[in-house]
């Protein structure tokens, strides 16, 4: 048997997936047309394969990883919801997809109108009158928001340089704080998993530029003391930053801008319909209060007195440009299509169903796993595998075992304040049957941990690869065809 059948290599010398017409020119003539420095000395090292083989290769690869198209993906904080395909179709419309970023404004008025309307919708959802669509990731939005905070204090001539961050914060928060040259002051969540005003009051002083909060926080719990916290922070001259990466529990119900937050970023690629994961393009829009609008990135889409949209570059207080052109436009088209399809009532229903699904699932699994905060949750909840750990089965093992059932793992070991954490976010797009099936699988794994723990600790058994060294895979990533 040809060994090639058994191995990865598909290339066969001389095989082609295309035919080109004769060009009718002598080789010398062609060569003369190519400047010497651009001429290739050796053949390019490309695989030589037939068209169907190429197709099969990529389709096969595309199914080796877990993906939302193949199964449940309860990766907490990431909102791996189903993204309606027609929003992708909208983003792929020729007028949008083939638009060159240097096209003069007069020729892209429709796209500017779309951006403008999206800014209004996001403003309506969040309660912030100022909006920039430029940042291209959640972390980028945080960086932008903190630059705005710094510009605000700098203009007042205040040398504030610290930001308060809760112990449950997403890792990007302290990283962004460091990126703008500030330092973090950590405060602890209380026994109910949320921040108490006292904890803020204790550290709030004239060095503090502001506080970064996530609401609902990463435990999936609603921070119910925001108004009081805002009072404390504002009284001492600080600002409130809301990490709005995940708005899936808030939309149509809770507007951060109404309660005292000054700045917020959105992850359009989580809540608003752009598929993500695997490092795809993101969109981290930033909303601010009227007072902070002048600091938003350059240029800012504005409407002049006669109602005409234009990109305003004349903004002396702006923190400047944070990305080339206008960010990731296709994400904006998807977000626009998403909001327009659902409408106000539909958007609210998204949040209601996200919360309902999370609470339903929490009730289904809490008998088999420890639930450190046994209260009503928002769009996600955190359970602990500490009971299973006593039996020699770690949370990482449980997550690997889930792969055998065609389910993606929850977020593991985060937030850091829950030992053996599993952060579960079912999202609003899953059916009741899927949630119930997941609970049955979780129950079986809990049982296996008691009766046959090695089945769990040696998982996964049925995936294309078993346990990889994820650190090496990430650090020495090699996607080249040729060695
Ligand atoms: C995902 C997330 C972020 C970061 O977003 P990126 O687009 O990955 O940079 C920040 N905060 C929270 C709470 C998140 O869930």
Structural features, described:
The structure is a single chain. The chain is of the alpha/beta class and 483 residues long. It is 37% helix and 11% strand. It has 17 helices and 12 strands. Helix 7 (172-179) links the parallel strand 2 (162-166) and strand 3. 41% of the residues are buried. The mean pLDDT is 94. Pyridoxal-5'-phosphate (PLP) is lined by residues 77, 137-139, 170, 172, 214, 243, 245-246, 267, 282, 284.
CATH topology of the largest domain: Aspartate Aminotransferase, domain 2
SSE topology string: HHHHHEHEHEHEHEHEHEEEHEHHEEHHH
CATH architecture of the largest domain: 3-Layer(aba) Sandwich
Helix content: 25-40%
Sheet with most strands? 7 strands, mixed
For this structure, what is the CATH homologous superfamily of the largest domain?
A: Type I PLP-dependent aspartate aminotransferase-like (Major domain)
Uncertain regions: pLDDT < 50 for 5+ in a row? none
Number of contiguous helices: 17
Q: In the CATH hierarchy, what is the class of the largest domain?
A: Alpha Beta
Measured between the Cα atoms of the first and last residue, the distance is 26 Å
Which structural category fits the helices and strands?
Answer: alpha/beta
How many domains make up the coordinates? 3
Spatial strand sequence of the major β-sheet? 1-7-6-5-4-2-3
Mean pLDDT: 94
């Amino acid at each position: 048997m040809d060994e090639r059948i058994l191995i990865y290599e598909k290339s066969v010398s001389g095989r082609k997936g295309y035919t080109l017409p004769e060009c009718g020119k002598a080789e010398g003539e062609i060569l003369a047309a190519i400047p010497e420095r651009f001429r290739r000395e050796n053949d390019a090292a490309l695989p030589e394969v037939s068209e169907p083989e190429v197709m099969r290769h990529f389709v096969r690869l595309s199914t080796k990883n877990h993906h939302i198209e193949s199964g449940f993906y309860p990766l907490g904080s990431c909102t791996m919801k189903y993204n309606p395909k027609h929003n992708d179709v909208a983003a792929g419309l020729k007028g949008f997809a083939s638009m060159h970023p240097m096209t003069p404004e007069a020729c892209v008025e429709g796209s500017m109108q779309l951006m403008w309307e999206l800014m209004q919708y996001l403003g309506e959802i969040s309660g912030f009158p100022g909006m920039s669509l430029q940042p291209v990731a959640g972390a980028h939005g945080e960086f932008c928001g903190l630059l705005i905070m710094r510009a605000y204090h700098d203009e007042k001539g205040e040398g504030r340089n610290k930001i308060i961050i809760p112990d449950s914060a997403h890792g990007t928060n302290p990283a962004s704080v460091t990126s703008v040259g500030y330092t973090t002051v950590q405060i602890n969540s209380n026994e109910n998993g949320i921040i108490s005003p006292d904890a803020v009051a204790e550290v709030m002083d004239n060095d503090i530029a502001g506080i970064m909060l996530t609401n609902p926080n990463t435990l999936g719990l609603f921070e119910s003391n925001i108004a009081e916290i805002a009072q404390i922070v504002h009284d001492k001259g600080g600002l409130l930053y809301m990490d709005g990466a995940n708005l899936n529990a808030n939309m149509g119900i809770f507007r951060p801008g109404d309660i005292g937050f000054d700045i917020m970023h959105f992850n359009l690629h989580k809540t608003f319909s752009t598929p993500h994961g695997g490092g795809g393009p993101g969109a981290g829009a930033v909303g601010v209060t009227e007072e902070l609008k002048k600091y938003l990135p350059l240029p800012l889409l504005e409407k002049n007195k006669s109602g005409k949209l234009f990109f305003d570059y004349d903004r002396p207080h702006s923190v400047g440009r944070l990305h080339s052109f206008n960010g990731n436009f296709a994400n904006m088209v998807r977000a626009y299509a998403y909001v327009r399809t659902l409408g106000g009532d539909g958007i609210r229903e998204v949040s209601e169903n996200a919360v309902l699904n999370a609470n339903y699932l929490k009730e289904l699994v809490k008998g088999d796993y420890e639930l450190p905060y046994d209260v009503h949750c928002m769009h996600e909840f955190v359970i602990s595998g500490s009971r299973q750990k006593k039996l020699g089965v770690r949370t990482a093992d449980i997550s690997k075992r889930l792969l055998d059932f065609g389910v993606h793992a929850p977020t593991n070991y985060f937030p850091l304040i829950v030992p053996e954490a599993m952060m579960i976010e079912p999202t609003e797009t899953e059916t009741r049957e899927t949630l119930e099936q997941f609970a049955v699988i979780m129950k079986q794994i809990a049982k296996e941990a008691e009766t046959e723990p090695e089945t769990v600790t040696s998982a996964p058994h049925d995936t294309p690869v078993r346990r990889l060294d994820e650190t090496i895979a990430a650090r020495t990533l090699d996607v080249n065809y040729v060695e």
